[in-house]
Amino acid sequence: MTSFFVALGTLLNRMSDGHSISTQHDVWIQLLETLLARYPADACTLMIADRGSLRPIAALGLPDDVYGRHFRLSDHPRLAAIANHPDVCRFDPDCALPDPFDGLLDDKLTQVHDCLGVALSDTGQLVGMLTLDALTPGQFDPIDKQELRAAAQMLTGTLRLTQRLEQTGSASHDALDKSQLPPTEVHWRSPAMRRLDEAVKLVAPTDMTVLLHGETGVGKERIVSRLHMLSAQRDHRLVRVNCAALPEHLIESELFGHRRGAFSGAIKDHRGYFAVADKSTLMLDEIGELPLSLQPKLLRVIQEGEIQPLGSERPQRVDVRIIAVTNRDLAAEVEAGRFREDLYHRLSAFPLQVPALRDRRDDILLLAGSFLEENRIRLKLSNLRLDPDAEAALQGWHWPGNVRELEHTLSRAALRALGETFTEDPVNPRPRRAVSITRLHLDLPETSANPLDDLLPSNEDELIPRAWVALREATDHFQRRYIYRALASHDDNWAATARALSTDNGNLHRLGKRLGLK
């Protein structure tokens, strides 16, 4: 077990330097590899307890999408049995409890035939879980349970200590109740989303107005929810308003309220969204659609902290944290005269950019795992998985509709795959309990790469893409991908990347910010 202790020491050293649990994937994997060198398992997972669920932080013998899945104990009786067992919990080969990893251990929907697990508990509280699975019955007969218990105890202590180190190093730790964090928190694999998550943790506890940019479907609402749940307003309801959906003649009333008789049809007093969101967070979605005529009144609310309902003679104080959301380039809207410059600067006190899915491909399978688990529960399946050809197709497509397109693609694919698994009993057809999604089920176009990803030189002076786009868009796309790859190859170090690209460090930071990489 010497290598196991070495890996533990490496992990603790990194954590003491400020690294988080989710970024130490390679060390967690090393820990599991040392265990598998001694135990004859086909698959092994180390999972961390996450508000009633178990989330894998390291896995061997399983596809990458497993990292996006949250295994709720209420949905997985075998995991619940391990969690409640005081010792090494090994299941009989004919155990009727479904195994959460059935069909995931190889390229076929093969069932697990030998399974054991150990609950990682500290003073009665579940910290995590270690599981081992094998396809052959009796494969775990030679295992020394006492040695496995000792390894589990060390893993428990390591998980607990790293959690404490991570919380101690968090700038917002003192202000947050950890039980209030969203239960589906994602621990991103891509550097771009990790940077965004760090920025969210930094600004969330403050009262600063946030302007959230991003293409349609990138998951901006998830970021808004996380900002709210990490804020001082988390005990109050997040109020969401879609500015584009409000009738223009009613926008002022909907936002700021009105008194009875203020206009024809105002038969009673009406509280606007700002009054409803008092002491809480107000999400102004599609802020770029707000009419110019109403923008000065919104600016006054931000500056003065008060609203004046229609028909009221006196202003009303409100304490509202504003998060404005848009898929437009508001700076360009200001230049075109469609958005007030002073309001733009007020809203963008702390701007955040959510990167497009094509610019964070490391997250595709992570997100896919989350959506697969949602569809597995919705369709009442014991298992729902991706074939390797389906994984390749997901990673090859450029996702113009971003995360929303990925979610809908997998939902449709799950239904198609399920439809092909019904038994041939004409009287009582039943679907199989384990389903595999193939490339055909995804129904993605054959030309799966972004035209801009295919700029191939036919000679020294010519670049020919499959489709032409605006020059600015092509230039930004190329620079974004080029800098992203350079950062990845230099361990996300901006200074080292600037040296490698022979550019000024400050200029690179500013360019990265404009391109949504910071």
Quick recap:
With 518 residues, the protein is α/β, with parallel strands linked by helices. It has helices spanning 2-16, 25-36, 77-83, 145-168, 191-203, 220-229, 251-256, 273-276, 295-304, 330-335, 341-347, 364-378, 388-396, 402-419, 439-442, 471-489, 494-500, 505-514; strands at 43-49, 53-60, 71-72, 89-91, 114-122, 125-134, 210-213, 239-242, 280-285, 306-307, 316-317, 320-326, 350-353, 383-386, 434-437, 456-459, 462-464.
Give structural attributes.
518 residues, alpha/beta, six-stranded antiparallel beta sheet, 18 helices, 38% helix, 16% strand, globular
Describe the structure.
With 518 residues, the chain is α/β, with parallel strands linked by helices. Helix content is 38%, strand content 16%. The protein contains 18 helices and 17 strands. The chain has helices at 2-16, 25-36, 77-83, 145-168, 191-203, 220-229, 251-256, 273-276, 295-304, 330-335, 341-347, 364-378, 388-396, 402-419, 439-442, 471-489, 494-500, 505-514; strands spanning 43-49, 53-60, 71-72, 89-91, 114-122, 125-134, 210-213, 239-242, 280-285, 306-307, 316-317, 320-326, 350-353, 383-386, 434-437, 456-459, 462-464. The strands form 5 sheets. It has a 6-stranded antiparallel β-sheet with strand order 3-2-1-6-5-4, sandwiched between helices. The chain has a 5-stranded parallel β-sheet with strand order 8-9-12-7-13. Helix 1 packs antiparallel against helix 2 (25-36) and helix 9 crosses helix 11. The chain starts with a helix and ends with a helix. 36% of the residues are buried.
